[in-house]
Amino acid sequence: MAFVLGLFFSVVARAAPGDVIALTRLTAFSVTDVAYYRKQFFDPQLQATLPDIKNGVVLYKVVYETIDLEHNPSKASGLLIVPDIQGSFAVVSYQHGTQSNRKDVPSAANGEGQLIALTFGASGFVVSATDYLGLGDSPGFHPYLHAGSEAWAAADMLRATRKAAATLKLGLNSRLFLTGYSQGGHSTMALHRYLETKLAKEFQVAASAPMSGPYDLSGITLQGTLRNPSANASAYVAYALLAQSQIYQHDSWLESAIQPDVLAMLPDLFDGTHELSDIASALPTTPARVLDPKFFRELLNNDRYNVALRDLRRNDVADWKALAPIHLCFGKADRDVPYQNALIAFAHMTILGSSVELVNAGDHLDHSSAAKPCFVQTAKWFVSL
Question: Can you tell me the distance from the alpha carbon of 215 to that of 342, in angstroms, rounded to the nearest whole number?
């Protein structure tokens, strides 16, 4: 009997995804601080269109329980931003853009973390921002652009946010908004789909605003990267292929996909200590020089037997029916993530009955310059709902 009871209690006590391992206060911005830093981050035209400052913010690092790619218990980290006033607050789940340095993440209160504090946090929202698997305090490699783990890492961070809010005696209401930029746009689509199809009893999405994301990963994203490469294109391609080989355990095909001298560089370049721009500088300037010529032609010609294309298709997020409304913000001069991703998602999802609106931040705005206008547009929309 004693053995049976002991076994029972050990099962009950087992940690669950979303349980908080550690909650650490990082810093705070008063209303005066927010006003000052908004002037530093945004030009006068964007400042004039930002939502009003409703409160200061306090930033916390959260380490929480999640699962790894094998669905074994693991941990991840993220940033929690809370208003410094009392109330009952809606939550914004923010998914960050591409990072190769595991320390350059929201939970370190990096530039992106501060930006979401100034836009969403100071506009009266609690913000939940995962670092993803393999970044921040999460062990192992980062499964770059893997829709499944992007979604569950963010969902478990939302669970951790609820539990941390209870610890902080912070009121949350049921309204949940989703947004993210670049890779974060892809992650936001993946999260939105996951919450509505798998966790609808636990979370109800009020609205979603993916921004400049590679939703059609195996299609226009890949073709644009190969045919009209940006300065970071070689790094994107190498990062995605390396991650796929690890996610799906296809190490053997990397040797036939990537030039031998480049392949030899990748373990050191993607060791979690290098910025993406530094990786791009170390690699050949175009994907055509990174990839084996035959493999490059297969990708270019959309060869249905190509294993990399097959794995990319598993992570497309542009063709599903959403229940909550979606805004897709983009810059039309974006070469890192072609703006046609938004058009393709709009077309597919509208046909299926989704409510999707296209938001062009500017015809001449590229991947970097469209970011802040998209943030402002999204914050204004969320506040209006």
Answer: 7
Q: Which of 98, 367, 333 is nearest to 239 (CA)?
A: 98
Span 224-241, pLDDT tens digits: 999 999 999 999 999 999
CA atoms within 13 A on the CB side of 110: 17
Residues 6+ apart with CB under 8 A from 365: 331, 332, 333, 334, 373
Written as one letter, the residue type at 189 is M
**DSSP designation for 170:** -
**Torsion sign across C-alpha atoms 101, 105, 107, 112:** positive
State how far the Cα of 121 lies from the Cα of 54, in Å rounded to an integer. 9
DSSP category for residue 215 = S
CB 187 within 8 A of CB 154: yes
- Residue 297: strand, helix, or coil: helix
Beta bridge partners of 130: 78
What is the spatial distance between Cα 343 and Cα 132, in angstroms, rounded to a whole number?
27
Sign (positive or negative) of CA dihedral 219, 222, 225, 227:
negative
Sheet holding 57-67, edge to edge: 20-29, 57-67, 73-83, 126-130, 88-95, 171-181, 205-211, 326-331, 356-362
**Cα separations in angstroms, 199 against 17, 19, 177, 184, 284:** 13, 17, 15, 20, 43
DSSP character at residue 53:
P
Place of tokens 């049921």: 174
Domains of the chain: residue spans and CATH: 14-216+318-384 (3.40.50.1820), 217-313 (1.10.260.160)
Please identify every stretch of the chain with a pLDDT value under 50, giving residue numbers as ranges.
1-12
Q: Using one digit for the tens of pLDDT, what is the confidence trace for 40-62?
A: 999 999 999 999 999 999 999 99
* 221 secondary structure, DSSP code: I
